[in-house]
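User: Predict the structure for this protein chain, please.
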Amino acid sequence: MTSALLTDRYELTMLDAAMQAGTHDRQSVFEVFARRLPVGRRYGIVAGTGRLLQLIQEFRFGDAELGWLRENRVVGTAALDWLADYSFSGDLWGYQEGEVYFPGSPILIVEGSFAEAVILETLALSVLNYDSAVASAAARMVSAASGRPLAEMGSRRTGEWSAVAAARAAFIAGFGATSNLEAGRSWGIPTMGTAAHSFTLLHDSEEAAFRAQVDALGPGTTLLVDTYDIPAAVALAVKVAGTGLGAVRIDSGDLPELVAAVRAQLDSLGATSTKITVTNDLDEYTIAALRAAPVDSYGAPSRK
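Assistant: Here is the predicted structure, written as structure tokens:
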């Protein structure tokens, strides 16, 4: 698979014009940096460099790509011949992934001839803009969580391949796991997840749903307790799984109040080691608001 057409047309028309002018071989330096940060953020986190390096290795123009460029008259014959042999031979250096950056500081420098460097511009900006934005937001959530584990659960809020990139960026920023299986396969990120509300609704009763999940996954599983009535569901969860129940998950409601009530109920039922995880479209502000609550872990969507 090639990444060669993951770019803007004007990168190639610049190449074409520079070749005609005889300036395409001039040594050039391109710098990737942020002009400013979003309101409320004092720093950013670099992510995406590893993905970018892999995509640059795959940046090749095969017969199909060259044929499409020719058919659509994007560039002329000389440029097509040059692209047929393209392989980046310049130099790349910059920040490591996970490092802090500030506005105006180049996180990546690309040096080479104008021709071979300029056609990577859109790809580099696309990867680093998105991944670093996700990592920067994720780092704020990690700080707000004050050492409590975070799992990335944002696949439904972005494109299918952006979800994989987002999971990777969140992991770089300190998240411990992801719900996205492709991110697990591609990047070795631990994966997590048990059941959604639809699983509870599938069964004739909430108790039947809990029993099916415990039978399949064991008492150490995490049971979702906010489909109907939370106190009733917590009591059912302990009844079905026993006091060794791994965790309960709360995905709605007034979380600070609910978490305190659920913790007290679990303790009164003897499930003192059962953990509480909360989800429900969390960000750094809602996580910070839960700092005093007895939350054990968070499931949060990746966001920019």
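The chain has two domains: 9-135, 193-300.
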